[in-house]
Structure formats: structure tokens, C-alpha cells
Amino acid sequence: MKKILVLILAAALVLTFAACGGGGGSASSDPNCGHYDATVLEMMGFTMDVAEVFPDGFSMDLQDGGKAKFNYDGKSYNMKWTLDGTAFHAEGGGAELDGTLSGGVMQLSDVMGSGLEITLVNADAAGSDAPAAPAAGDYSWWDGQWYGWRVIYEGAGGYEELVDNGYDVVANIKVDGDKATVTIWDYDESEDEALVTAEVSFQSGLTDKGCMVSESGEAFYEPLSKGSWVVDPGDDMVSAVDDMICIEGTNVDSDSEQDWFTYMIFLRPWGVDWSDLETVDGSNFPYEDMVPFHHEDWYKGQL
Predict the structure, then answer these.
(1) Integer Cα distance of 234 and 244 in angstroms
(2) What is the pTM of this model?
(3) Which CATH number does 2-129 carry?
(4) Which CATH code fits 140-302?
(5) For residues 91 and 97, is the Cβ–Cβ distance under 8 A?
(6) Is the pLDDT of residue 188 over 60?
């Protein structure tokens, strides 16, 4: 949800400033003038990577005479700015930005009504007092082997008769910093016969585990696109379970758009005893029985 809101903001900024334009600035004796780069984005308690949300940058050039250049999407737009004490205001092209400015640090609040808070820093003015960009998270919780089951939750055409059919799976998630590879295969097959091979990235989520997002790959013999998966252990139907994730996606047959299915893959770290689900509030679970079919006769034997 947070990424969707930020993307809506990005689109609104493009439309708002579509009719504006401008050139470069000049040197100034005003200590508040200068170039400010976005370093921190926050929304609904989340901290996000600036480069991920605004790959072409998000910055502001404050100039003498209350003139400003707002730099976004590789373009520069004209604005006017004022400062009353530390209360900062800029407007232009139908947009208004409000916040505070002091010591080379600009903090914009509720940008374009999106709820997004943006901190911009003039490195020359702020010096060592500049707030640091958020450090990359620790996503080691995801690293390792997993066990669970897959199911076709909804389907049409040739897949309709497979709805609610489940099968046990094994997964391997290999984490490298804020990225990982994900491989998933049926429990009675080998990793070489994987049903899913995906490249993913991690970002902040509702818990310190973070959120896993697909980048590329293949799932059930169809291409897996960027953002097809958004897997947040704190923000889905299995969030009542501390160590469980649900990967959900939709496949449309490349030969027939009438044939499609929505899949769910429920996974827990290898070694977890699934019988503890009996004591968990399962009111949001899609199925009454969430334990893999071969939990007793195969999985426990493997342990």
C-alpha cells in the first residue's frame, strides 16, 4: 500500500508541473539558499529508499529573491519559496509544499496530501548535523530453506477444475544484502525441477523482517514481473503467525487469456512444527486447515 501511495504522488507531481519549466540557479549569500537533496522518505511509519521511489532524484534549489527550482523526474520546475522563522513554504505550477527549514535541513510534511514526509539536506550547510540516509535492513530472517504448500485459490478456463487443490513444496531463499533468489519445488521432486525461480528485493515492511518484492523470474511456467509479489509477513492473511509468509500471484496463460489462476504459497522456515497453528487465531486464513498435507508422513521424517 505504501508504494502505491508514493507512485500516486509521483504521478500527481508529473501532472502538476507539466506546464512548468526552468533553468539553473546562481550563487547566493543567503545561508538558506543552495541545493537540497532528498535523503529520507517516510510514510505511515515506513522508511523508504529514495533511489527506489525516485530513481531520477528529488531535490530543491533555493535561490535569492524567493525563487526556487524543484527537480524531479529529470526535469526542473519553477517555484517561489518563503521562510517565516523555520516555517517553510513553496508553491508553483499548482503545487504547494510546506514544512520546516533550519540549518541546511528541509523537512516537507504531507507532500501533495499523500502523507509522505520528505527530508532534504543541503550538505554544505548541514555538515555533520545532516540526518543520515537509512541503513539497509537486516533480511537474514528470510535466508535458508522453507517448507509449506501451494494451492490454486481461484481459476478459470482450463484451471477451474484445479481450484483448492494443494500440494506440499520446499523452498530455498538465498539472501545477499537486500536482494535474494527464491526457488520453490514440489516436495517429492528436486530443486532442478523448480516450479518457481525468482529474483527478489527487500524493503522496509510492517515488521523488522521487511517486505519481499519480486523483480523478475518465472512462476509456474509464466514470466514473473517486477512487483507481482509483495510479501510482507506483517501485512497479509497469515500475519497472526510470527514465522509464516504467503506468496500470492496470478498467472494468465500466454496462449489463452481465458485460462488463468491465482496461486498462494504458504511457507515457514524449515524445522518449524506446524502443529502450533492449532493455537493461532486463524480468522483471516483462507482455509480452515493450513497444515501441509504431508506434514506428518514426510516432513517430520525429514526432520
Answers:
(1) 10
(2) 0.62
(3) 2.40.128.280
(4) 2.40.160
(5) yes
(6) yes
